[in-house]
Amino acid sequence: MERSLSPATADHGSATSPTRSPWWRSAVVYQVYPRSFADANGDGIGDLPGVRARLPYLRDLGVDAIWLSPFYTSPMADGGYDVADYRDVDPMFGTLDDFDALLRDAHACGLRVIIDLVPNHTSSAHPWFVEALAAPPGSPQRSRYVFRPGVGDAPPNDWESVFGGPAWTRVADGEWYLHLFDSAQPDLDWSNREVREEFAAILRFWLDRGVDGFRIDVAHGMVKADGLPDVGRRRDGLLDTAATPYFDQDGVHEIYREWRKILDGYPGERMAVAEAWVSTPARAARYVRPDELHQAFNFDYLTAPWDGPAQRRVIDEVIAAMSAVGAAPTWVLGNHDTVRPTTRYGSVARARAAALLMLALPGSAYIYQGEELGLPEVTDLPDDVLQDPVWERSGRTQRGRDGCRVPVPWAGHTPPYGFSPDGAPAPWLPCPDTWGPLTAAAQAGDPESTLELYRTALRIRRAHPALGDGDLRWLPAPSPDVLVFARDPGFVCAVNMGAAPVPAPVPGAPLCASGPLDGTLLPPDTAAWWSTDAAGQPLG
Ligand code: NOJ
Ligand code: CA
Fold first, then answer.
1. How many CB atoms lie under 10 A from the CB of residue 201?
2. Is residue 63 scored above 50 in pLDDT?
3. Residue among 207, 184, 196 nearest 144 (CA)
4. DSSP string, 503-514
5. SS (H, E, C) 65-131
6. How confident is the model at residue 14 (pLDDT cuts 50, 70, 90)?
């Protein structure tokens, strides 16, 4: 299969050529959490001009696209996933002009731009919700949200917020409104035609501005089961994927069919990726049927333990489920909601090996900012700096997701490591004082660094005809703890997740390795890539 063109060489305006696969099937997408990426104006908070200034870094890293977490007008009750105006930029992050400039420069750097769409809920500061509160029960204003009478003094049903506590809040006249997340994030009612039309118009607003796609927040949540029946059990936070009457309902797919038509109506291969925490890869595949969205995050992979058989099982399941609907798999090791891989897997060596494995798998991959620096989760943030609503809503029993949202360290020896210009106030979350060796500047040019590992791997991935979209072929492995596979033509990847060194599957020097090989042995927690000819011999 021919490689997709990079946007630098692709004609954004032309129809899809039948001879190449669309860009997203092979793309490496870098997630920017704008609040924590780079602060240009020196207020201690990352912003869009900060992202724009760092585009050359992303281009040189070798990614194909960036996904921007929300930058819209927001009271920031949930880091911007509480949107008050879907068509404007929050002053904290800049202006619409800043967005346009960022988009223009990204395209000039050969980077596509995906933005975050938050359709399950608005902010309680959104004009619609303000109107709903001012209007009486049963009014058209209330019908854009999910208002219901309670049962006596109790909420309408037993649903819990993903962030903890009840999913219902009572308003002055006694009705309750649904919020699957924070009480400042009221759920919209997607059976209301006006809601559907508004989001179709929001999609067009950003498509007209030139964005390449959307990441759909809570893509599994917009439609609730008729009658809002009880769940009958307790859920376990964001990562709980068991079936409920409010997630993964069949009705969501009708929305995506509508959106697919909108996306297909624009030139330049616009796409959308679903954030759908669902129970199995087969359920995730329903979001990427040919007339729905283009990608769905592969959370089964993200949550798989560092264990050979478990990883192999999930890789096989995902490839089978996605190919059954003609979609390319995606792979993801982390995001702004999950514990960073260095900490989750227990060592930076494993995180590095996982990165090489992920980037060798068929399909597309997502990298969360700072993963390329091997950043660990910050687990000792003091109570008084925590911002994630999970902290308060869980009654201060869960610390939440701030530990993976600490500002990116760029340069220098002391916090905030070039995140803000010199003389700026402290950043919105404090950086550990041990991160000097982890800055991008400290790692650049050091062949042993995680940054250089990512740069090398992404360079090889872009050039090698076997990588990106396609298939894999498992090869015999010395133990179930070791994964060995080939990609055609001429590529082999091996990862040792066991405790003992094993013979490398291919003689000779690897193209790239996550750690040193021991002669012909692949040590524990190490991955490597080899170029081979048809007989499995190294090409040198
Ligand atoms: C998923 C987002 O990734 C997360 O950060 C947010 O809190 C919830 N959706 C609610 O919008
Ligand atoms: Ca700023």
1. 12
2. yes
3. 196
4. E-SS-S--SEES
5. EEEECCCEECCCCCCCCCCCEEEEECCCCCCHHHHHHHHHHHHHCCCEEEEEECCCECCCCCHHHHH
6. very low
End-to-end CA distance of the chain: 24
d(CA 350, CA 209): 40
Within-domain flag for 44: yes
Q: Which amino acid is at 536?
A: G
Give the Å distances, CA to CA, from 26 to 23, 240, 364, 462.
6, 29, 5, 9
Nearest residue (CA) to ligand 1, atom 2: 217
276 and 413 both lie in a single domain: yes
Contact call for residues 143 and 136 (beta carbons, < 8 A)? no
pLDDT at 534: 52
Instruction: Please list, in sequence order, all residues whose beta carbon lies within 8 angstroms of the beta carbon of residue 107, skipping any fewer than 6 positions away.
Output: 7, 12, 113, 210
User: Residue 298 and residue 29: Cα distance in Å, rounded?
Assistant: 13
User: 115 with 136, same domain?
Assistant: no
* Cα–Cα dist 510/113, whole Å: 33
Residue-level pLDDT at 19: 57
The residue among 454, 481, 507 that closes a domain is: 454
Q: Name the nearest CA neighbour of 161 among 219, 116, 221, 227.
A: 221
Would you state the structure tokens that stand for residue 78, as one six-digit string? Answer: 């949930």
Q: Is the CB of 116 under 6 A from ligand 1?
A: no
CB of residue 247 inside a 6 A radius of ligand 1: no
Q: 187: which DSSP letter?
A: B
Residue 217 is among the residues annotated as catalytic for this protein: yes
Q: Nearest 10 degrees: CA dihedral of 410, 413, 415, 421?
A: -60
Q: Tell me, yes or no, if the pTM score tops 0.85.
A: yes
Distance between CA atoms of residues 39 and 427, nearest Å: 9
DSSP 404: G
3-class DSSP state for residue 350? helix
Same structural domain, 214 and 84: yes
Contacts of 389 (CB under 8 A, 6+ apart): 77, 78, 163, 181, 182, 184, 400
Which atom of ligand 1 lies closest to the CA of 120? 11
Q: 426: which residues sit within 8 A by CB, 6+ positions away?
A: 44, 415, 416
- Tally of CB atoms within 10 A around 9: 7
Asked if residue 263 and residue 324 are part of one domain, the reply reads yes
Residue 163 CA: which ligand 1 atom is closest?
7
pLDDT over threshold 90, residue 5: no
Describe the strand order of the beta sheet including 364-368 as a list of residue ranges.
Answer: 295-296, 271-274, 213-216, 112-117, 65-68, 28-32, 364-368, 330-332
Q: What is the residue with the minimal CA distance to atom 6 of ligand 1? A: 81
Amino acid at 104: R
131 is catalytic: no
The boundaries of the domain holding residue 308 are 23-120+193-454
Q: How many domains does the chain have?
A: 3
Q: Which of 303, 311, 307 is nearest to 339 (CA)?
A: 303
**What is the DSSP secondary structure assignment for residue 376, as one 8-state letter?**
P
Structure tokens at 257: 């069919």
Indicate if 321 and 362 belong to the same structural domain: yes
Handedness of CA 10, 14, 20, 24 (dihedral sign): positive
